[in-house]
């Protein structure tokens, strides 16, 4: 299938751009820390722009010399070119769904009357920008389906603009709401609640700290300047406020958080005419989420006294709480209401199990799933007779099923056709032991007949933070790597939520090193079991996973041939000073705290790059419109790595334009994936592909 040389492919020495250094030094609790590349934090300056251009010239010059780069891109384009659908959602007689014909940069929103009606386009984001980088990020219908509030994002930014559409004519109305981020539209009658920030200073839209989020009510057909301020908190600038209304529009729920973990819940009984919010759950030690209401009671998914989560029924007036679905040994990963039934999605060793309950918490049945994988869906209206769900696994493309509430039967609704043979591949779950004795799961996917000779190109992927669970899921863009004899290894590190809040807490703050230890143990397992070798192993991760890559290759560079840190949080001392970075303090801790500074400083990727470390071939990726993890993290990391690493391996940075925290369209996703695979395989000694 592929030719691998006995020695790793070598290229001429790279001539990196010179990066100016300053004498910037900060004092953290008595520790002096140099920050010579602070100027790269100004990603809109002419000097930074010239630096980016020069770095990209080196990187793309290197990539263009890899003989099979375009071959990979062509195969990626070929395999993703198939129709992809979302599960339908019903509103009155209409069913709404997304579809991508294959190579469209953005999926198109359609609707049709009944399941056999003719689809009509509701919104086609591909028509909204010349390069296809404007995305439809949310679409919220009013309770009666008369209007819809939809949000658009440009060039990958987290900033959104909300518009309103008349669903009788499918024409946009004059409404336009700006400086919106991390919110939906919670409808009440002819208007909706939403959250926004004040307009940032000119030139700092993508980097300045986002503070003082506020909740407003927008009445359809009016200007944003007339919106009613519903909630603000002048004493706490660093909080998120997210509003929702129950399906019957009786309750307005205000969810408050100080970061990514822990919440506080307030409510108004709009039917009773409440003028002020009343606190339902005090924050911020636990996570609470209101699923819906049953009359004058609220259904709440939470982990108060239940690390694996449970569902309770709460009487708002008295605070009286009764468990509907008690905690189990497996994590309750979510709950939804449709057709007057409760659907509970559990995780067992990071794979889905779904159970159906009545609204009083009586178990009725388990939903029969196609296999071990990941399920999403089971959403709907109270009068639904059936619901849809989507099932996927590593070699099982996302397939839509219909579940009938009366017969309790599942039938296939829509299956995709992808240009590969699932029967040629297999996935297995294995477990290994981490440094402290913790048992950690690892999914391995590869072509059948794999030889355990230590010579298989292997991509180890991890995340390990923020309660994020890595469950089995299909990506067509993974197949070309597997076709070349590659192994995809997805590891369920601590810091995620695969085993509930306890698993999460073991990878937070002062215990963050556990995450890196888990990843290192995964690499050691793969090598010891002869799936691969240090010469054929790549470590890849994005965002918090980019931090993972940076920290791990500082600590154990000998385990990896290639490192791909994508849009990573690399400066752990200053992350909270940009956009919404302050929201991550709940998971990481902060350099403002002496004890947390000590823990963070010990692993911060930028601050632990040292001379003499045999770094693997490294390609950092970021984008100019990433306002979640600002590109300064990757810029400063690349400059530091290029300064200190003197070995033969490349230390490159690939900087995408008109893109954000993830690829802003299909074309950019294909191109960046091809470059990552080409860089990875080339540095593993792969001379040619099949």
TrEMBL record:
Keywords in alphabetical order: Hydrolase, Protease, Serine protease
Pfam families membership: Peptidase_S9, Peptidase_S9_N
A GO MF term: oligopeptidase activity
Domain Peptidase S9 prolyl oligopeptidase catalytic: 479-685
Entry keyword Hydrolase: yes
Biological-process GO terms, alphabetical: proteolysis
Catalytic activity as recorded in UniProt: Hydrolysis of Pro-|-Xaa >> Ala-|-Xaa in oligopeptides
E.C. no: 3.4.21.26
GO CC field: cytosol
Domain of life assignment: Bacteria
Domain Peptidase S9A N-terminal: 17-414
InterPro entries: AB_hydrolase_fold, Pept_S9_AS, Pept_S9A_N, Peptidase_S9_cat, Peptidase_S9A, Prolyl_oligopep/macrocyclase
Keyword Hydrolase: yes
Function: Cleaves peptide bonds on the C-terminal side of prolyl residues within peptides that are up to approximately 30 amino acids long. Has an absolute requirement for an X-Pro bond in the trans configuration immediately preceding the Pro-Y scissible bond.
Protein family (similarity comment): Belongs to the peptidase S9A family.
Name of the protein in question: prolyl oligopeptidase
Organism per entry: Larkinella humicola
